[in-house]
Design a protein that fits this description.
mainly alpha
């Protein structure tokens, strides 16, 4: 029909970060995470929290703020994590 468009939405809230299971993360992941936190992790966490606060000011930005806050644990300790779909 004229003037209508078909849109498909995807619920991205079904994707979550989880600890890796079945894979040996080992000592190198721990050492890598420590180095990551010292060099870059804190800056990324501060950036995510700051942008989440800025986005939460508007009603439209609240879902984006929530998504930013979900990224904080991964930004802090990225090694040994993987993306999985929640059932």
């Amino acid at each position: 029909m004229l003037g209508t468009a078909r849109t498909e939405t995807r619920d991205d809230s079904q994707t979550a970060w989880t600890e890796s299971r079945g894979q040996a993360t080992g000592v190198f992941s721990v050492i890598g995470n420590i180095i990551w936190v010292v060099l870059a992790g804190w800056w990324l966490v501060i950036a995510h929290v700051t942008s989440a606060v800025a986005l939460a000011i508007t009603i439209i930005g609240i879902p984006f703020a929530w998504a930013n806050l979900k990224m904080v644990p991964v930004a802090l300790l990225p090694l040994g994590k993987q993306i999985v779909d929640q059932p």
